[in-house]
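Final report, results section. Input specification for complex C-07:
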Amino acid sequence: GAVVSQHPSRVICKSGTSVKIECRSLDFQATTMFWYRQFPKKSLMLMATSNEGSKATYEQGVEKDKFLINHASLTLSTLTVTSAHPEDSSFYICSARDLPAGGPGEQFFGPGTRLTVL
Amino acid sequence: QKEVEQNSGPLSVPEGAIASLNCTYSDRGSQSFFWYRQYSGKSPELIMFIYSNGDKEDGRFTAQLNKASQYVSLLIRDSQPSDSATYLCAVTGGGADGLTFGKGTHLIIQP
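Structure output:
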């Protein structure tokens, strides 16, 4: 099956610093990647949709200048949390669509990145 | 705004019984429907997806979709303790849309 990796799996940083999270599709080309955030005991919330070679589309309420998304290739998307604050502490999960093999909406999820901002 | 509703549970089911998980959604334009399983601290894993009204079976799992009632369900037959997890219902409008998730139902299979 399609495999999506994320790096790092866990990161702890100081308030005010920036953190970059990588999402890679390992065995397929992902024209579209998605970034989700999950707070404890809550469900996943879509943050943005990332299309290769174009600007990301952000969901309402998500600050695009704070959460920078780059999708430079068909296998890599990055999310940079800029000037992180403790309230940004969350579980960040990416997913990727495998259009040729998957259904119209099927997404494959990465293992997630646990961000803790002190 | 799209909404997906699930009973948060916990839903407790004895081992070997049928677990029934329900989900309703608000957007009539939704086209694709998914059930994910999520263990604590892990990312979701896809169990099943369904696009058409009716039932879809895959092993011990059956997804049911009723677009007129805007209702999706997941049945787990012969429940096992390893099925204990949070089950997330998700919908999308199709195309390149991201998923809208429900809050999940915490399922506990009692040995």
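The first strand of chain B starts at residue 4 and ends at 5. The interface with chain A takes residues 31-32, 34, 41-46, 49, 51, 88, 92, 94-104 of chain B (CB under 8 Å). This concludes the modelling results for the funded period.
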